[in-house]
Amino acid sequence: EQLKELEDQLRAAERQVTTKERQVTTKERQVTAKERDLLQAEINLRNAKVALEKAQDVYEWPDIRTAQLKVCGAKELLAYALRNLDKATSPSDIEAWTNIVEGAEAALSIAEDRLEAIFSAYDTEEVAIKKLQVELVQGRLEDAQRDIEDAQRDVEDAQRDVEDAQRDVEDAQRDVEDAQEALDEALNTSLEITAPCDGMVLDIKFREGDMVTKDSPIIVLADLNQMELRVTIGQDNIISIKPGLSAEIDLDSLPGETLKGKVDYMLPQKSTTSQTVTYEVYLSL
Predict the structure, then answer these.
(1) Less Cβ around it within 10 Å: N or C end of the chain?
(2) Taking the model in full, what pTM does it have?
């Protein structure tokens, strides 16, 4: 029963190893999936950066820079004309610088209108959106990298679980082997029947192949040091027999040899064929 229990434990440990190995396979597939997610995140980040660069290129188009320079030049010319107008004293100088100021103001207005028209032609909010998209994709990329690290740690943990389960199988296998060894030794030992004392085998109750039940006697053994002889004595002679009396016995089976014994007790036996009574005398040899 103990061996069967240990074998069941061994099979359970082997099933546990199989389960843990499947978990490792599942975790490895998760790592592969996370790696694909990371690759997709890298592609998305690259595309977002390209889109941002294109939007920035549109925003920094040379026409914008030229328009900005014209506005700056018009402002400088207007400031210069105003300073000279303030300094002018003669009517002719005042008139001349007044005309220049008016021309500078007109040029500045045209330059500013041109710059505003260029800005209005392109959506500057698109650049901000593209920047946010880059940041978002960058965050997803970092999340994917962390997911891979977590998945790889899960694989390592699952592999350690497999190793632990394999050690459990080895321990269970050793327990089964030890139990089998002990059982074999017990079976070999149980095949040896040792008599409780020296004596003579009088009868063998079971033979090879017979079914033996618990507490059934297998061999009838006689202790030759404590033999008992039963002798029938007639009622005429029993009066001279009493317990403790010494006796000498001659047996036909042992010619020329006299056995010595002692009377232990006597039992009356009535004959079934006549009215006579005989006595069975038991002697210890």
Answers:
(1) N
(2) 0.39
